[in-house]
Amino acid sequence: MNAVKFHSWKHGYYPDNSGALDRLLDKIDSYGVHVQTHVGTAPISNPYVWAEYAKKHPHVRFVFTHIG
Predict the structure, then answer these.
(1) d(Cα 19, Cα 53) in Å, to the nearest integer?
(2) What is the pLDDT of residues 7-23, one digit of tens each?
(3) What kind and span of H or E run contains 43?
(4) Which of 13, 28, 51, 65 has its CA 20 to 30 A from that of 20?
């Protein structure tokens, strides 16, 4: 399986104010792999924030893990 995993809680960043994510997601789109995000630990890994990225990058396949 080829994918890129983002774990903002573990790596200590807030995805809602990380300007690099849009550029990274554009590059990931060019490779055609999916994105896995750990979204179960608020406030740093809130699923609503990642859903906004999914809307902005409709060709990138997202898998939201630990969403509950």
Answers:
(1) 11
(2) 998 898 999 888 899 99
(3) none
(4) 65
